[in-house]
């Protein structure tokens, strides 16, 4: 039995689909992971062999929101995950947590530098990233946990939480290569985690990097030729925001040992091609 927290969210929905596809038995909990007794009651009731959590304190807009809502973020993203880790450890349950890879930044504009799972995080320009780093460090003390780091998640539609949908609404973007995660390409790794009882940290990102302008140019080519945007510098962007943003290249060699990971550019282009094809058939995805 697999116990799921955060199953109704953007990432959680993709995990549920993958579990169903593989005919795996699971149950969704609507309990908050920061309520110790509620999680304990779930464990006693369902007696899971695995727990998967995508639960987190969701922002209504951007991560700037967390700069003035630090306590709420800590409650779910730190306290909640530590409660899961504690109870899973006590009951010998394998725990998979969806975390973030937005904990690194390029140094000296070296966009070829790749960060692997063993590299010490070096970005704390936002409270969100600082919290992720601190929480991950605490969780690393448990030996039954698998931490999956996603970056800028993208789905094959215009879901409002998909990075593509978000940047289409921007008028200005920076031109820096980043690792990103296509959910349809990467969520199947969850099955491998369960089958092999994998533990430790994994960078769950597509192969290579891509820039926001490259994505928007594909959007113009395949979906909306009239779309316009302006490229600004990272410094100009910083002046517009409360918190800085992580830009980095995560190495995915570790997960590549278990499955073939598509190139990020090719995968995103295929998404746009498919959406364009559906639009021609009368299925409107265009925002």
Strand-and-helix sequence, N→C?
EHEHEHEEHEEHEEHHEHEHEHH
Q: Report the helical percentage.
A: 25-40%
Strand content: 5-15%
**Which strand order does the major sheet show?**
2-1-3-4-6-10
Mean pLDDT: 93
Please report the number of helical segments.
11
Helix/sheet category: alpha/beta
Please state the CA-atom Rg, rounded to the nearest Å: 19 Å
Termini separation comes to 39 Å
Oligomer: single chain
Write down the overall geometry.
globular
Largest sheet: 6 strands, parallel
Total number of beta strands: 12
Sequence stretches where pLDDT stays below 50 over 5 or more residues: none
Task: Describe this entry's structure for a reader.
By secondary structure, the chain is α/β, with parallel strands linked by helices. The chain is built from eleven helices and twelve strands. It has helices at 10-21, 36-46, 70-90, 127-139, 163-168, 183-186, 189-196, 212-222, 234-240, 253-256, 264-280; strands spanning 2-5, 26-29, 50-53, 94-100, 114-115, 145-150, 153-154, 172-173, 181-182, 200-203, 230-231, 249-250. It has a six-stranded parallel beta sheet, sandwiched between helices. Strands 5-12 form a two-stranded parallel sheet. Helix 2 (36-46) packs parallel to helix 3 (70-90), helix 3 packs parallel to helix 4 and helix 8 packs parallel to helix 11. It starts with a strand and ends in a 7-residue tail after the last helix.
């Amino acid at each position: 039995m697999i116990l799921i927290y955060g199953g109704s969210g953007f990432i959680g929905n993709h995990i549920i689909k993958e579990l169903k596809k593989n005919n795996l038995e699971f149950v969704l909990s609507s309990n908050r992971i920061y309520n110790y007794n509620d999680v304990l009651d779930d464990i006693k009731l369902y007696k899971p062999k695995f727990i998967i959590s995508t639960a987190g304190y969701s922002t209504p807009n951007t991560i700037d929101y967390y700069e003035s809502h630090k306590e709420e973020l800590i409650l779910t993203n730190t306290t909640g995950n530590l409660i899961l880790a504690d109870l899973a450890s006590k009951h010998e349950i394998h725990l998979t947590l969806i975390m973030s890879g937005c904990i690194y930044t390029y140094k000296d504009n070296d966009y070829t530098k790749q960060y692997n799972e063993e590299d010490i995080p070096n970005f704390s320009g936002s409270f969100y990233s600082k919290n992720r780093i601190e929480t991950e460090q605490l969780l690393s003390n448990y030996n039954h946990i698998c931490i999956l780091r996603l970056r800028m998640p993208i789905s094959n539609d215009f879901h409002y939480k998909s990075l593509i949908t978000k940047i289409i609404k921007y008028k200005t973007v920076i031109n820096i290569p980043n690792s990103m995660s296509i959910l349809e390409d990467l969520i199947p790794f969850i099955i491998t985690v369960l089958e092999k009882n994998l533990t430790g940290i994994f960078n769950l990102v597509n192969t290579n990097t891509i820039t926001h302008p490259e994505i928007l140019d594909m959007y113009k080519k395949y979906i909306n030729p009239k779309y316009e945007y302006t490229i600004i510098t990272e410094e100009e962007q910083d002046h517009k925001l409360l918190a800085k943003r992580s830009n980095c290249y995560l190495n995915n060699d570790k997960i590549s040992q278990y499955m073939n990971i598509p190139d990020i550019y090719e995968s995103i282009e295929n998404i746009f091609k498919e959406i364009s094809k559906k639009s021609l058939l009368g299925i409107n995805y265009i925002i």
